[in-house]
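Ticket opened by: R.M.
Priority: normal
Category: complex prediction / small molecule

The reporter submitted a protein together with coproporphyrinogen III and asked that the result be attached to this ticket for the collaborator who will pick it up next week. Submitted input follows.
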Amino acid sequence: MTTATAPAQDLADSAFLKAVRGEPVPHTPVWFMRQAGRSLPEYLRVREGVGMLESCMDPDLVVEITMQPVRRYGVDAAIFFSDIVLPLKAVGVDLDIKPGIGPVVAEPVRTLADVAAIPDLTPEHVPFITQAVQGLVGELGATPLIGFAGAPFTVASYLVEGGPSKEHAKTKAMMFGAPEVWEALMAKIAGIAAAYLEVQVAAGASAVQLFDSWAGALTPADYVEHVMPHSARVLERAGALGVPRIHFGVGTSNLLGLMGQAGADVVGVDWRTPLTQAIGQVGDRAVQGNLDPTLVFAPTDVMTSRAAEVIEAGRAARGHVFNLGHGVIPSTDPDQLARLTEFVQSYPL
Ligand code: CP3
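Result attached by the on-call engineer:
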């Protein structure tokens, strides 16, 4: 007699969760940051006339958009469709996500009073997140859902600058010059991020990713002193939920070891750092990455031979989850990502 395995067991046995735990995998698991979004015609169709934040607060739309790349590519994990500034919007911060620009904050944070005016996040602020995650978990079955939050430094940059920034000058000016405002702001964002992750995991997310996309702007010493304790607090609270934690940033060659020590099970690596070097830095942790996102614009055989190099390098890690080194570029041809997914999943280990 054959017994069907329980869905929860199939999920626990998924290639993604095995790789994250450092167990042997049937194939290298693969998903793509920003796999849902503007590169998909089906995304552009459902988003017609619906604002970005509005779509993040509509559970049916979140389920549909999150599922789109899972259906199209058969990737090994889904990433919850939302944005790093969504929890701020949910607690009442006046902000918007402008097409082609990114998050824009109406009244940038400058003083202790500004920080104190931002409420802490409770589950009551985000019922639509709970609903969307629950709906997704039902549809995904054995495919893990990755919940996420923005890390304190990256979210602080949007709040202090008031919008996207290359230099993060106002943010770092606060960090260097107004330590008590900085500490209060980082603690506030860390609390919101952790509470936001708790909601997603309580509703059924299998793993979480903390996006510290702009941490690469920091020296290691400044990261250790002004940022790492706050990210560590978020990762600690996520760890208490029993789910694996991925910690990712861009341009973080000099921070990868610290980002692991902050409390990550998996360190995400951008494409600038050779995976072999990253593995040396993170020690006994899994890694995620790190194909250059522009390689999808190269001939397929060039893309796949570079993907093979990434997979080969990943063998030395405790575990390896294949991904791009940053998000999918909107002009990416989805057929190339389909070929890349197929290549990674059928690559003999
Ligand atoms: O598929 C996925 O990865 C899940 C969805 C996701 C979005 N934002 C949707 C989105 C995730 C994980 C994010 C995280 C996010 N948001 C980060 C960290 C990841 C990274 O890229 O480093 C950051 C820095 C943001 C802030 C943000 N939001 C930016 C820089 C932008 C892009 C601006 C633009 O339009 O080019 C956004 C908007 C955004 N977030 C879009 C999407 C699909 C595009 C908006 C749209 O489709 O109208």
